[in-house]
Design goal:
The protein has 276 residues and is an alpha/beta fold. The protein contains nine helices and eight strands.
């Protein structure tokens, strides 16, 4: 697998987009995931991203998209989010990326007003439509598993059921190791995602709340999860996810630490392609 970085950490530290791309390559990463919005990005910035990634030899693998309105009870809201995710897919095609990382959202009102099966149905139908558009563009959608109590896709059981009901070869799972730990998912449970997972996020946490820390800064035992991920035979990327760095002035060291710790684990398992 390749080792990548989600570029949002640079923006949150106040660094320009092109600077983040260049430093990502300098630090040793193989790929980059781009966090942007096709409804906000202008042509100049889009061209700058493509140009800088090409110059640095840093392929764009994934675009992250949060679209919680796909399961909103208002039809007009769902339609807006469908159109917005399709715009993400079109931008991913322009970036020559492999997938759009999709965050589906949560059940609302404690599942007490709208029946949870109704929101589930909305999500399935939305992803069927999006999967069809992804296939037209030669892309895939990677669904993120979120560890929160009301998340639609909270564990392996819900992820497997959702993918099986969508029935689209373009709609697969993203594996987020920190989220697995927080949700109490055992490493061996990942075996059920054989043939259903295409992308991986890695970060650490304190075991209690969502953290996105460099590996080694928290309590996650990564190696059992990474062994199971290796056994899945995913020909994709493990992308480091770091959010809201505590000290923007030391952002390079923060990211370099995450790179080093992740690379060491991948090397121990012979999980990283083309690196000694």
């Amino acid at each position: 697998m390749k080792l990548g970085l989600i570029n949002s950490v640079w923006e949150q530290a106040g660094r320009p987009t092109d600077y983040g791309i260049i430093k990502t390559r300098e630090l040793g990463f193989d790929t980059i995931d781009i966090f942007t919005d096709p409804l906000e990005i202008n042509v100049e910035e889009k061209e700058q991203i493509i140009r800088t990634c090409d110059q640095e030899g840093l392929p764009i693998v994934s675009l992250a998209c949060v679209a919680v309105g796909l399961v909103d009870f208002n039809r007009s809201v769902r339609q807006f989010h469908l159109d917005r995710v399709k715009a993400f897919l079109e931008l991913a095609s322009e970036f020559r990326a492999d997938n759009v990382l999709l965050v589906m959202g949560e059940y609302i009102w404690n599942q007490e007003v709208i029946p949870p099966e109704e929101q589930w149905r909305m999500g399935v139908e939305s992803c069927r439509e999006l999967g069809s558009r992804a296939m037209d563009l030669g892309l895939q959608i990677a669904l993120e598993m979120e560890p929160f109590a009301m998340s639609l896709l909270r564990d392996v059981d819900s992820m497997v059921r959702f993918i099986d009901e969508v029935k689209s070869p373009a709609v697969k799972a993203n594996i987020d190791i920190s989220h697995l730990h927080l949700a109490g998912v055992a490493p061996q449970d990942l075996r059920r995602l054989k043939g259903k997972a295409i992308h991986v996020h890695i970060s650490d946490c304190d075991g209690k709340v969502h953290g996105d820390l460099p590996p080694g800064r928290g309590v996650v035992n990564f190696m059992p999860y990474l062994r199971e991920i290796k056994a899945l035979g995913i020909s994709g990327t493990i992308s480091v996810e770091l959010e809201y760095p505590p000290d923007p002035e030391t952002i390079e060291q923060w990211i370099a630490e995450a790179y080093y710790e992740t690379n060491v684990m991948m090397q121990q398992l012979q999980l990283r392609d083309g690196k000694n």
